[in-house]
Amino acid sequence: DVSPVVAGLIGATILVVSVSVTVFVWTCCHQQAEKKHKTPPYKFIHMLKGISIYPETLSNKKKINRIRRDKNGPAKEAARGNLLLAAAEEDAPGVAPRIEQLPIKVDYGDELSPDQSLTPAGSKTSSPSSPGDDVMLGDLTFSVDYNFPKKALVVTIQEAHGLPVMDEHTQSSDPYIKMTILPDKRHRVKTRVLRKTLEPVFDETFTFYGIPYSQLQDLVLHFLVLSFDRFSRDDVIGEVMVPLAGVDPSTGKVQLTREILKRNIQKCISRGELQVSLSYQPVAQRMTVVVLKARHLPKMDITGLSDPYVKVNVYYGRKRIAKKKTHVKKCTLNPVFNESFIYDIPVDLLPDISIEFLVIDFDRTTKNEVVGRLILGAHSGSAAGTEHWREVCDSPRKAVAKWHSLSEY
């Protein structure tokens, strides 16, 4: 015989356990269903010389490399690492001390070419003898088609001709192309790198789904031609802008050839603002960089917010000599960082120092995306940035804090 109290406790326990198990099973089933129907980060199919590479397999490098080995044979085995289907994901910012020290060596200057410098866009290009000189950057050939049954825009990047030499040692380049559909920038794709060639043949097709034919007239194809650099930032060769308002793929594939033009920095739009503080101690020969806060950042997540952090790169001439990151600030468009870094910089090197600030949106599932950029120092791309650096150099031991508009990366 069991007393009513004990019977009630046993019944309540059984009820709680049953409800808990039911909720747990329902949650697991719901999460599994969400993963099954989740939209891939890029809604496109990539055709590489007849091979379909779907978005969900983009991160499976082993599978892609095996397909390329079977396709190309042993003769091209050494080139299998050149397949770059998506931009390399930024390293997740780890927990770092707020103050870091890094001595800068004076002998870096021996490795630099005097006719190369870091442009305001953050890339290294050979400087022409005068601003008015016309630099031939080559031509890009591609085709545009539209699949009406699937409502898909099909863009084939075929080849480029007459590219300039970006690697002085090999007298060649390692070109690849990034393509974006403007103005919404939802679709960002990237070709593989072709080694040591000025006449690359890509032959890569990208199919973008969910684009109504009636909206084609409002879209612009943006091709950014770059040269891969293993040890530093990739060189920007130029860009091609193609408004689809003048292209009619309704009757079939349209073949186009456009001249590659120098990248227009003036088109960069504001991407919010960043407040930074700089101070230089001439006796200790130290530069203190403080990332204070940002405001009015663009919305990067489906929630209408972002998870921003700031990556600080220090350049001596065109060579990056230091990189640090702040912590991630979750779910905010107006983050407050208040993180400082200290660098040992000799006085005689200050004229050649540049500090680049990249505001990046952290994402656990897809590629981290650069929200905006700021460059202060020798290669500042704005009058405000040049003035800030000059004031820091002219006012030793004084912390100079200012707001700066972020430019497009």
Automatic annotation (TrEMBL):
Keyword check for Ribonucleoprotein: no
Any GO CC annotation of this UniProt entry: plasma membrane
Record organism: Lanius ludovicianus (Loggerhead shrike)
PANTHER family for the chain: SYNAPTOTAGMIN, SYNAPTOTAGMIN-11
Family: Belongs to the synaptotagmin family.
Biological-process GO terms, alphabetical: calcium ion-regulated exocytosis of neurotransmitter; negative regulation of secretion by cell; vesicle fusion
Annotated localization: Cytoplasmic vesicle membrane; Endomembrane system
Full protein name: SYT11 protein
Pfam families (alphabetical): C2
Top-level taxon: Eukaryota
Keywords: Calcium, Cytoplasmic vesicle, Membrane, Metal-binding, Phosphoprotein, Repeat, Transmembrane, Transmembrane helix
Entry GO MF terms: calcium ion binding; calcium-dependent phospholipid binding; clathrin binding; phosphatidylserine binding; SNARE binding
Biased composition (Polar residues): 114-130
Transmembrane segments: 6-29
CDD domains recorded: C2A_Synaptotagmin-4-11, C2B_Synaptotagmin-4
Membrane topology: Single-pass membrane protein
Region: Disordered, residue numbers: 113-132
InterPro entries, sorted: C2_dom, C2_domain_sf, Synaptotagmin
Residues covered by the C2 domain: 136-258, 270-404
